[in-house]
Amino acid sequence: MFAGIYQILHTPFTDAGEIDWESFGAQIDFCLKAGIHGLVTPAMASEFFTLSDAERCQVVEYVLSTANRRVPVLVGVQGLTERIALAFAEHAAAHGADGLLAMPPYLRKASIPGVESYYRQLARVGLPLMIQNAPAPVGTPLSPRALADLLRDEPAIEYIKEETLPEPRQIGNTIKAAGDACRGVFGGQGGVYLIDEWRRGSCGNMPACQATDVQVAMWDLLEQGD
Q1: Secondary structure of 145-167 as H, E, C letters
Q2: Which end of the chain is less enclosed by CB atoms within 10 A, N or C?
Q3: Could you give the angle at which helices 82-94 and 53-67 cross, rounded to 10 degrees?
């Protein structure tokens, strides 16, 4: 089960706009030394939208190779279209990703039936899939009932990253609506609601990596009943 603090890795750049692989490696080392429970890339905090398709694939391969199965790695496969997202998902699966994370199409917005088709196609890749329920204008928010229906219809859709507001309440609503069809709901928003999310039944949080050591320590204490 995916649970705990799953850090979204930043993409460091040189002054020339190239990916700074040395800094990238140091960031992963920092997260692992902090006791991180999982890693995520490329997502919003990774600035995936600044990367070419080739760079996105390079980032995924680098993180999977560097993490080397020490913690689970979820790969962000959101795309402008279903076809593009599916290509990223198949690439992630071929290189050993543990799971997939995806927002709905984020520029040319899909209809609700289009969003459902998008996730059903990604579910067929065969890896555990997490829906990133992000708010507008980037996201296409889905109601707890719509999320629950997708989870029940597609067994490979197992998790939600809930970021619609008010986030802790929405996490509770989604857990109630989805029941056993959902293996867990993660929070986001940089971890600012971490304690309230935990109280409402979240299985973890996906913040960016500016406070990894502190957030891991907080989560571990909560799980210990402290």
Answers
A1: HHHHHHHHHCCCEEEEEECCCCH
A2: C
A3: 30
Assess contact for 174 and 144: CB atoms under 8 A: yes
**To 10 degrees, the CA torsion angle through 100, 181, 166, 198?**
-90
Q: What is the pLDDT of residues 154-171, one digit of tens each?
A: 999 999 999 999 999 999
**Nearest-angstrom CA–CA distance, 57 and 74:** 13
Q: Are 64 and 76 in contact (CB under 8 A)?
A: no
Contact 185, 158 (CB under 8 A): no
pLDDT at position 98 is: 98
Closest C-alpha among 19, 97, 37, 10 to residue 61:
97
145 and 177 Cβ atoms separated by less than 8 Å? yes
- For residue 58, give every residue at least 6 positions away whose Cβ sits within 8 Å of its Cβ, in sequence order, or none: 19
Which tens digits make up the pLDDT trace of 56-83? 999 999 999 999 999 999 999 999 999 9
Q: What are phi and psi of 154, to 5 degrees?
A: -125, 100
